[in-house]
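[Meeting: bench + compute handoff]

Bench side (C.D.) handed over the final construct sequence. Compute side (W.E.) agreed to return the predicted structure before the next meeting so the bench team could plan truncations. Sequence as handed over:
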Amino acid sequence: MIQKNEYYEQKCFWDVDYFTLPEEKQKILTVAAAIPEGVHSVLDAGCGNGSLLNFLARNYSSSYRRLAGIDISKEALQHVTTEKYEGTLSAMPFRDNEFDLVVSTDVIEHLPYEEYPVVLQEIQRVTSRYLIIVVPHMENLEASLYCCPQCFCWYNAEYHVRAFTRDTMKTLFDQAVPEFIRPFGPEKRYPVFNDFTRLLHYRSHRYPPSYAVCPQCGYVHKEKETTNSFSSSSHQEGKRNINFLQFPKKIIKKIFYKEIRTERWIMGLYKKMHSS
């Protein structure tokens, strides 16, 4: 059984060249293109395996005097080729205004309630000029929930705990103002829940994917498992990975199902107030 704090040490997340994946490549290129002129030092806060930093180091090394990353995962940091630090974003080992730019991609949607405002303050503290934030756009967190077959805890398999819109992106920081906020990436579809589709979703007892770790009991689902603590009927539903789209599709979609279509990510570029 893996514990929650070991979730980010799974090799399956980091033994990947994200630049070879079309959607991730688009994200890396979009973020790199958004870096303002005159930026010479960059901190990637929650850098993962360094996909952005390694790209900048390979292709634009002459433009930057310093490229650094910080992450909680030892496994992820093994792949980072630039300056790197193991640590949490809530207490980063950097001076005030140490970097021209702090970038954080696909990170703040994971932050627990108490840690969230602390991290936002920290990334403002260590930048002298700019911040770039990338998060999933208008994600339907409720539709992404899975049910642990051991303790019946419902949770997001990626540990996403908040969703973001243009409005929430505008008000992220109290010491930085947005230069622009724009969605980007391939189309993503999120279901709009109503009482009926919500009932079907929670009735489905979907099995979590194999990389997911229950935040309550630490359970990890194995693909070949055939027994669990569900009732027989619930188990069979979980085994077939039924969700509300797998009920009589034509009827449900025609009468009840609606969806939001949007770009996968939203990015904000922010300028720190009182910076020159």
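W.E. noted at the follow-up: Strands lie at 41-45, 66-71, 83-86, 99-105, 127-136, 145-147, 154-156, 176-192, 258-272. C.D. will use this when planning the next construct.
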